[in-house]
Every structure is written in C-alpha cells, then in structure tokens.
Amino acid sequence: MIPLVKPIFGKKEKQLINEVIDSGIVASGKSVEQFEKTFTKLSGAKYGTVCSSGTTALHAALLACGIKPGDKVITTPFTFIATSNSILYCGAKPLFADIDEKTFNIDPKSVEKILKKEKNIKAVICVHLYGLPCDMGELLKLKKKYKFILIEDCCQAHLAKYKNKTVGSIGDAGCFSFYATKNMTTGEGGAVLTNNSKTDKLTKKIVNHGRMAHYGHDMLGYNFRLTNVAAAMGLAQCEKIQSWTKQRIANAKKLSDGLKNIDFIETPFVPKGYTHVYHQYTVRIKNGLRDKFMKYLQENGIGCGIHYPEVIYKQPLYQKLGYKKGLCPIAEQAVKEVISIPVHPSLTSKDINTIIKVIKGFKK
Ligand SMILES: *Cc1c(COP(=O)(O)O)cnc(C)c1O
C-alpha cells in the first residue's frame, strides 16, 4: 500500500523533544518562542503567534481582527469545516461564495456578487486549498474597493507563494495548521501570522487568557497555547520544510507528466506565477467515474482520499442553520469529481511510477 500521507520524523525531533523533557518545562516556554520566531521568519511575515491548532489559529485571528457576533464573513464551502466553524465560534455568519472551476479556490467574481448584494460584510476568509494560493491580486482589489478584513487560511499551504509573496501575510492575517497530516507537523498545532503589530499583540493575548501580566486580564481570552514538546517537534520540522516542499513539487510534476492525455483525468492547474506546495495532489475524475476509480485505486494498493466529499453548507450542522442547497453549483460539482492521490515527500520514484502505471490500467 502506498499511503496517501506520511509524516516524517528524524533524530532532530527526538533530540529536541528530549531536551524539553529534561528541562522539566513542558508547557509553553523557550521552545515555543523559538518555533514562533523560526516559522514566522520562514514565511516572511513580520509577526507570528503559535497556538494549539489551525482551528484555534482561525478563531484567534478572527477575534483579533475584530469579528463580532452578528458580523458577516464570506468564505468558500469547499474546504475543511474548521474554516467556517471559526466564523460561527465568533457568533458571526458565514456566507458562501462559489469556487473557480479550474483552481478549486474561492472565485473573486462570486465574492464580489455577494459584496454587491449584502451590506456590511466584515471579512473574507480565503483558503489556499491543497497548497495552491488564491487569486490574491483580485481579492486585494476587492478589499480596497469594499473595505473588508482579509484572512488567509494557509492550513494546507506552508511556504506557498503568490507571485513571490509567501502566503500568510498578504492579507490582514494568515492561519496555519501543524496537524499530523499537514506539510509539517507538531502533532496538533497552529500559527497566526500578520504584518500588523496591533493584530499580533491582540492575538498573543487571545491565545493566552487575555493576559497582560501573569495574573492581569483585561479581556476574555482562551487557552489556545502550544506546548514546548510540540514546539520542539516544529523547530526540527522547520529545518526540513523547504526541502520537503521542493520534493512535493517535483513529485507533482512527475505525476502530472505521467497522467497527461488521459481523457477522464484533469490534473491540477497552476496559474502562472503561483507556487503550489501540494499539500494534496487532487485530480478531477470526469464522466461520473470517481467512485469506481477510487475503489480501483484502493484495490490496487494506492492510498487516496476525497477532499471534500460535501460542501460545508450541506453538512447537517449547516442545514440546521438554514442554508439552502444549490448555493454554489461549481463547488457542488467538485465534491463529486475530486480525488487526492499520494504526493508526499517520502514517495520514491518507483512509487510514483507504480501510481501512474496503476492509473493507466483503469478500465472505464
Ligand atoms: C487542517 C485545516 C484546518 C484546521 O486545522 P487543525 O490544525 O486541524 O485545527 C483549517 N482549515 C483547513 C483548510 C485545513 O486543511
């Protein structure tokens, strides 16, 4: 079986974790500070705060940007549910814009339709899905015209670039996940990056009980802290994320070369000037063949997954909130056609050739 995902750990992770244990300070401390600095620098942002997950990163970023109960926030329905749940945590209302057919990312044209129709949109959360940056040029133009807060969900897009700009500080804040299957991991973990010092200061308070001093609190905060143990793992992973990213991109190129000219498969589309970091290598399987194709891959030892099998507003939770079906037809079509196949950096050339060979042997 060639697995769909495989976290990679080496001696450095074990060494740094052991050092934390030996120090006796396993909650937040020096390793957290070091990891925070290192990851922020890698991503080219001015400021950063690490926290307990990608979900708490989104929640903290929305709060730090001033999202309040009753506010409206536009996002994509084609993402992991944490993206829009973070809006609900703030008591705000998610509004769903449709996606672009080719990139699977939020379509700025669909965002503008909502901005024209609805008054007082407070924020937009764009998701760099599968590791491909959104059309930040168009989103920034809309931001200027309609004045909203732009938050990037970078949970799948560590070190991805939109025209020489690393994602995470192109908008007002960028949220990252270090969950076990992401491009780098701390087991569970997250980060909020920003170029705005006020947003950063507020984020640091929100993730730590609204603390100004050890027992001084002037606002409602949370315990969204990361531990030193997790941060030690993250520090070791920071040394390797650049080479892993190169490997993901090289693996994706081999897959796309090997899978071109197969009539029922559409390989990932990357607009000019964008750096896709392939958290997932996701293809579209046309002609209603996706589920048959998935079963075939599983029977032939190729790990695969569906990201995502349903649009968020059709999930029972959101149905109870009153969202209508048919809201975003392009996203509703995508959920029926996408499938992710292995692209992670531990794949060998032989694995990649096997994947291509098995796929070429699929009989419609
Ligand atoms: C993983 C992920 C999250 C949530 O991150 P966690 O660390 O699992 O809480 C949010 N958004 C997207 C797009 C993700 O892929």
Give the spatial strand order of the biggest sheet. 1-9-8-5-4-2-3
The span between the termini is: 23 Å
- Outline type: globular
- Count of individual beta strands: 15
Spell the H/E element sequence.
HHEHEHEHEHEEEEEHEEHHEEEHHHEH
User: Which small-molecule ligands are present, each listed once?
Assistant: pyridoxal-5'-phosphate
| Proportion of residues in extended strands | 15-25%
From the alpha carbons, calculate the radius of gyration and give it in angstroms: 20 Å
Query: Helical percent range?
Result: 25-40%
Sheet/helix structural class: alpha/beta
Average pLDDT reading: 97
**How many helix segments?**
13
In terms of per-residue confidence, which ranges show pLDDT below 50 for 5 or more consecutive residues?
none
Largest sheet: 7 strands, mixed
Keywords:
364 residues; alpha/beta; 7-stranded mixed beta sheet; 3-stranded antiparallel beta sheet; binds pyridoxal-5'-phosphate
Structure, described:
By secondary structure, this protein is α/β, with parallel strands linked by helices. Helices cover 39% and strands 16% of the residues. The chain has 13 helices and 15 strands. Helix 2 packs parallel to helix 8 and helix 3 packs across helix 4.
In short:
This protein is an alpha/beta fold. The chain has helices at 11-23, 30-43, 54-64, 82-89, 108-117, 136-146, 197-206, 228-238, 241-259, 290-299, 316-320, 329-337, 349-360; strands at 47-51, 72-75, 93-96, 121-127, 149-153, 161-162, 165-166, 173-177, 190-194, 211-213, 216-217, 265-266, 274-275, 281-285, 338-341. The site of pyridoxal-5'-phosphate has 14 residues, from helix 3 and helix 4.
